[in-house]
Model the fold of this input.
Amino acid sequence: MSYSINKRINKPIEFKGLKAQYIGYLGGGLVCLLVLFAVLYLIGLAIYCCILIIAGLGSLLFYKVFGLSHKYGQHGLMKRNARLYLPDYLKFKSRKVFYEKR
Done:
């Protein structure tokens, strides 16, 4: 008996060049576009206008998500967003904090 070895262990999920969380972002964006299409159609907008609006927004969505995926990679966008929450500097009035044992 022979078993094939899975060589994709500990590798990020990838689909057509999209990596990791960007697949979810694209899926969520497409669901939002579907809901927007339904809302536009129900308020009475012409079907051709609905299709043009959704096609334009869908193209923009694909362009932006693929751009983010290629620019930041698997974890880069989360690291960039986490950097916004770091303080500019830390100020201590005494060294007592460093000498205390826990």
